[in-house]
UniProtKB/TrEMBL annotation:
Cofactor(s) the record lists: FAD
The encoding gene: glcD
Superkingdom classification of source: Bacteria
Protein name per UniProt: Glycolate oxidase subunit GlcD
An example Gene Ontology molecular-function term: oxidoreductase activity
Annotated family: Belongs to the FAD-binding oxidoreductase/transferase type 4 family.
Biological source species: uncultured Desulfobacteraceae bacterium
Keyword vocabulary terms for this entry: FAD, Flavoprotein, Oxidoreductase
SUPFAM superfamilies noted in UniProt: FAD-binding/transporter-associated domain-like, FAD-linked oxidases, C-terminal domain
Keyword Flavoprotein assigned: yes
InterPro entries documented for this protein: FAD-bd_oxidored_4_C (IPR004113), FAD-bd_PCMH (IPR016166), FAD-bd_PCMH-like_sf (IPR036318), FAD-bd_PCMH_sub1 (IPR016167), FAD-bd_PCMH_sub2 (IPR016169), FAD-linked_Oxase-like_C (IPR016164), FAD-linked_OxidoTrans_Type4 (IPR051914), Oxid_FAD_bind_N (IPR006094)
FAD-binding PCMH-type domain ranges (all copies): 37-216
Length: 471
C-alpha cells in the first residue's frame, strides 16, 4: 500500500531528516540492483542502529507497508529490490568494525561494513576473513550474510555461514534478538543464526555479526593454466581434487570469458585458448611451493594443459585476478541484457555440465559465457542478448530451463551463492518439493505474520506454483 503522509513523517522522525529520502530522483537510486529490474521504493531510510530498525518495522506492522533491507545493491537476483513498494531500508550507515579480537580470532561488525574493508582490517592484525565474493570491494557483510556469499576461496575455506558465530537481528515484528555465541563451541537450543544466514533478508534484518577469523596464511602462490578445450580444464579440476590437493582457489574461464576480459582490460590473456584456470595455493612457504609443483605436474600430465605459468610477483598474480573479476562487467560489450545463473554441480560432474553448455551454445547460436569457481562446482553461466528480440528471449528462456534440468539431473543445485530472490522464484519447485516449500513458507509466516519484510522473494505467490502450490 502507498505510504501515507503521517507514515512519512514518522519515518523521518525515527532516522532524522538527513537520512530520509522522498524525492523521486533520490529514490530512483535505490530502485535497482545488479539485475536489469527496476522497482521504485516509496521512501528510503538510513537507520544508524538496531533500535531505529526496530521502530521502522514496528511502524510497518502497524501501518501495513513493506520494508526491503539493502546494502550496496550488488545482488544478482533482485533480493534487495522493493518489488511491492514501501520502504528501502539502507544499512550503509551501520558500518563500524567494532572489534578485531586477536586473542579469540573474531571480528564484531555492523552489517553495513564493506566486505573488502573487513578483509583489510583483519589482515592488518595478521588475521584472515576467507569469504571473498567478486563484489567484495563494494558489497556489504549484511548482503553477504543474506545470500550466504562464497567466492573463489570457498573450495578450501567454505562460505559465509561457516564463519558466523553470532548475530544481532531485528525480527520483522520489531523485536531485537541475539543468536549464536562468541565462543568456538555452543549447542544451547536451536541454531537460529544459521537460519538467518542465506534467508535473503526475509526473516529478519541482521544488524551486527560476530565472525570467525583465521590466521593469515604465510605464503600465497598463483598460477594460470591454459587449455585448448574447456572439457580438458574441467577434467583437470576433477583430477586435482581426486589427488587430495585442495587449493585456496580454482577459477575457470571459458574462451568467451577470456576474450571478454581481454578486450575489457588488456591483461595479455590467451584469447585463442579454449579455457583457462587460475589456481592459487596458500599456507607455509614450503607447503605452498610443493603444492604449486604438484599442480603443475598434474595439469601437464597427459598433455591436457598447453601451458602453465606461475606468477612471480604479487603484481602478476593481481593482474590475473583483475582479469577474472572483469569478466562479468565486460560481458555487456556483447549484449545489452544478461541472464546470469550460478548453478552448482558435484565437482566430478563439471565435465558433463560443460559438455551440455557447449552443446546448447552450438545448437542455439546464443552468445554464452561460462566462468566461476570450478573448485566447488559453481558455474556462472551467462547469456548475453537483446531483451527486445522476442525470438532470442524465448530461445534463452528455454536454454535456461534445459540447463536447470540438467543441473538437477547431475545432482546439483540451481544457486550456489546468488540466491533465489525474484529471478529464480518460479524455478524453485524444480528443486524443492511441495512439503519442503510449505515448511519454508510456514517459517516465514511465523517470523513475519504480516509479510512486511522483503515480500515476494524466494517463493512465488501461493496459487501460482505448479498444482496451485503443491506438486
Amino acid at each position: 500500500m502507498p505510504l501515507s503522509d503521517p507514515c512519512r513523517r514518522k519515518l523521518q522522525s525515527i532516522v532524522g531528516p538527513d537520512h530520509f529520502l522522498k524525492e523521486e530522483e533520490d529514490r530512483a537510486c535505490y530502485a535497482y540492483d545488479a539485475t536489469a529490474m527496476f522497482h521504485m521504493p516509496d521512501a528510503v531510510v538510513f537507520p544508524k542502529n538496531a533500535r531505529q530498525v526496530s521502530e521502522i518495522l514496528i511502524l510497518a506492522n502497524q501501518e501495513g507497508f513493506c520494508v526491503t533491507p539493502r546494502g550496496h545493491g550488488s545482488g544478482m537476483t533482485g533480493g534487495s529490490l522493493p518489488v511491492e513498494g514501501g520502504v528501502a531500508l539502507v544499512m550503509t550507515r551501520m558500518s563500524r568494525i567494532l572489534e578485531i579480537d586477536t586473542d579469540n580470532l573474531t571480528a564484531h561488525v555492523e552489517t553495513g561494513v564493506v566486505t573488502g574493508r573487513l578483509h583489510r582490517a583483519a589482515e592488518k592484525k595478521g588475521l584472515f576473513y576467507p569469504p571473498d565474493p567478486a563484489s567484495s570491494d563494494f558489497s556489504t557483510i549484511g548482503g553477504n550474510l543474506g545470500e550466504c556469499a562464497g567466492g573463489p576461496r570457498a573450495v578450501k575455506y567454505g562460505v559465509t555461514r561457516d564463519y558466523v558465530l553470532g548475530l544481532e537481528v531485528v525480527l520483522p515484528t520489531g523485536e531485537i534478538i541475539h543468536t549464536g555465541v562468541k565462543t568456538a563451541k555452543g549447542v544451547t537450543g536451536y541454531d537460529l543464526a544459521r537460519l538467518f544466514v542465506g534467508s535473503e533478508g526475509t526473516l529478519g534484518v541482521i544488524t551486527r555479526a560476530v565472525l570467525k577469523l583465521l590466521p593469515l596464511p604465510e605464503t600465497i602462490r598463483t598460477m594460470s593454466v591454459v587449455f585448448d578445450a574447456m572439457e580438458d580444464a574441467a577434467e583437470t579440476v576433477s583430477e586435482v581434487i581426486r589427488k587430495g590437493i585442495i587449493p585456496r582457489a580454482i577459477e575457470f574461464m571459458d574462451n568467451a570469458s577470456i576474450r571478454c576480459a581481454e578486450a575489457h582490460i588488456g591483461a595479455g590473456l590467451p584469447t585463442g585458448a579454449g579455457a583457462m584456470l587460475i589456481i592459487e595455493t596458500d599456507g607455509k612457504k614450503d607447503e605452498a611451493e610443493n603444492a604449486v609443483r604438484e599442480l603443475e605436474r598434474l595439469c601437464l600430465a597427459g598433455g591436457r594443459a598447453s601451458s602453465v605459468r606461475v606468477a612471480e610477483t604479487p603484481a602478476e598474480a593481481e593482474k590475473l585476478w583483475k582479469a577474472r573479476k572483469a569478466v562479468s562487467p565486460a560481458l555487456f560489450n556483447y549484449g545489452s541484457h544478461k541472464i546470469n545463473e550460478d548453478i552448482v554441480v558435484p565437482r566430478s560432474r563439471i565435465p558433463d555440465m560443460i559438455r551440455k553448455i557447449n552443446e546448447l551454445r552450438e545448437k542455439t547460436g546464443l552468445f554464452m559465457a561460462s566462468f566461476g569457481h570450478a573448485g566447488d562446482g559453481n558455474i556462472h553461466f551467462n547469456i548475453m542478448l537483446d531483451k527486445n528480440n522476442r525470438d532470442e528471449m524465448k530461445k534463452a528462456e528455454k536454454t535456461i530451463e534445459i540447463i536447470f534440468d540438467h543441473t538437477l539431473a547431475l545432482g546439483g543445485t540451481l544457486s550456489g551463492e546468488h540466491g533465489v530472490g525474484v529471478t529464480k522464484a518460479s524455478h524453485l519447485p524444480r528443486e524443492i518439493g511441495a512439503t519442503e516449500r510449505a515448511l519454508m513458507r510456514n517459517i516465514k509466516k511465523l517470523f513475519d505474520p504480516r509479510n512486511v519484510l522483503n515480500p515476494s522473494k524466494i517463493f512465488q505467490p501461493e496459487g501460482k506454483e505448479p498444482g496451485g502450490g503443491s506438486d
